């Protein structure tokens, strides 16, 4: 079992940066695919980025954040990060960290595949 907790959200202006962290407690963190999802007011929760547990840690991004966001993981610290640059007002959302045990690489963007979720952290980008 794994528990995950996000931190690092806040209020920034458009064009600025934020780094979100997701700290995991539990065993075998390196065997989990880690993903970030977000939910904006009045919208469905959507995939943002994922880093796969195997195969060299491939990363995947939603088209809306590609080139601006970077996901990374530090298995020694049981932590995954989301570096968000060039933030836009449309990035405003609650950001969730999720963990998927030994996930198949094709499931990285499927919310139903993830086993454990954090409570979320608010990111607000003002124009």
Instruction: Please tally the helical runs, counting DSSP H or I stretches of 4 or more residues.
Output: 0
Structural class of the helix and strand makeup?
A: mainly beta
Order of helices and strands: EEEEEEEEEEE
Uncertain regions: pLDDT < 50 for 5+ in a row? none
User: What is the distance, rounded to the nearest whole angstrom, between the alpha carbons of the first and last residues?
Assistant: 40 Å
Mean pLDDT, to the nearest integer, reads 95
In short:
The protein is mostly beta strands and 127 residues long. It has no helices and 11 strands.
Description:
With 127 residues, this protein is mainly beta. It is built from no helices and 11 strands. Strands 2, 4, 5, 6, 9, 10 and 11 form a 7-stranded mixed beta sheet that branches. It has a 4-stranded antiparallel beta sheet with strand order 1-3-8-7, with no helix packed on it. β7 and β8 (79-84) form a beta hairpin. The N and C termini lie far apart (40 Å). The mean pLDDT is 95.
């Amino acid at each position: 079992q794994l528990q995950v907790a996000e931190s690092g959200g806040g209020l920034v202006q458009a064009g600025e940066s934020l780094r979100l962290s997701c700290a995991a407690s539990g065993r075998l963190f390196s065997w989990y695919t880690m993903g970030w999802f977000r939910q904006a007011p009045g919208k469905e929760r959507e995939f943002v980025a994922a880093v796969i547990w195997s195969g060299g840690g491939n990363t995947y991004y939603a088209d809306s954040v590609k080139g601006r966001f970077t996901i990374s993981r530090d298995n020694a610290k049981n932590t995954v990060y989301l570096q968000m640059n060039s933030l836009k007002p449309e990035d405003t959302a609650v950001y969730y960290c999720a963990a998927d045990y030994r996930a198949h690489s094709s499931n990285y963007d499927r919310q139903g595949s993830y086993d454990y979720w954090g409570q979320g952290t608010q990111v607000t980008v003002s124009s």
